[in-house]
Amino acid sequence: MRPVPWWALVSSGTAPLLLVGGWLVSASLQGPGYDPVTETISALAGGGAADSWLMAGAIGGLGACHLVTAIGLRVAGAAGRLALAAGGVASILVAFSPVPPSGGSMQHSAAAVVGYSFLAVWPVLAAYRRRAPAWGLRPMLGAMVTLVSLIGAGWFLLETWGHGEAGVAERVVTGLQALWPLVVVVSCLELEHVRHRRTAAADRA
Fold first, then answer.
1. How far is the C-alpha of 76 from the C-alpha of 139, rounded, in Å?
2. How far apart are CA 174 and CA 19, in angstroms?
3. Which of 7, 19, 88, 121 would be 178's cystine partner, CB 3.0–4.6 Å?
């Protein structure tokens, strides 16, 4: 059995495409009234947004991709896989709890915070201390990615409460979180390829 099935590569690769493609297409449909620098992704899926179903579907699809990836990433630590799956479920809940036109939604905010938190900590929880692990699952790197996510949360809050460029901060940080599962999967497949080459070379020797 392969440590990472092919469909985990598909799901992890689709996740960032859905998120980035969703916010680019959705923002283009809003017209000049929407400013991606200052306004969040949630506004694209909220009440009053043009074709809000598009961004909501992208967020829901992102969550489903995280769930599938968590199932397939068998070589990662169990706690990390559970955190990734929980982040996926929270993303689906975000998609089903849009912000109303008047603004503000406890259900949406709670799901977003929970989802962000799980996706922030999953890299360090998924890391394992084995001999020659895939580089995407090394503890030091996982801790660094988690730290960057936590710093990104502070940046987003700072922009929300002060400077006003919350849209930029949110896109950078959520983009990183959407991309990291793909990085981990690719590193696992790379390690598998290296091991197969070594085994084949040993058999020929």
1. 11
2. 8
3. 19
Instruction: Say if residue 166 is exposed, middle or buried (CB neighbours under 10 Å; 0-12, 13-18, 19+).
Output: buried
Q: Which two tokens stand for residue 105?
A: 């939604």
Q: How far is CA 204 from CA 190, 193, 197, 201, in A?
A: 21, 17, 11, 5
Place of tokens 């990291």: 180
- Per-residue pLDDT, 31: 83
pLDDT-above-70 percentage for the chain: 90
CB 177 within 8 Å of CB 48? no
Residues 26-53: tens digit of each pLDDT: 999 998 888 999 998 988 988 778 889 9
DSSP state for residue 36 in the 8-state scheme: T
Q: Which of 72, 3, 10, 40 is nearest to 171 (CA)?
A: 40
CA distance between the termini of the chain: 25
Residue 46 token pair: 């909220």
pTM: 0.91
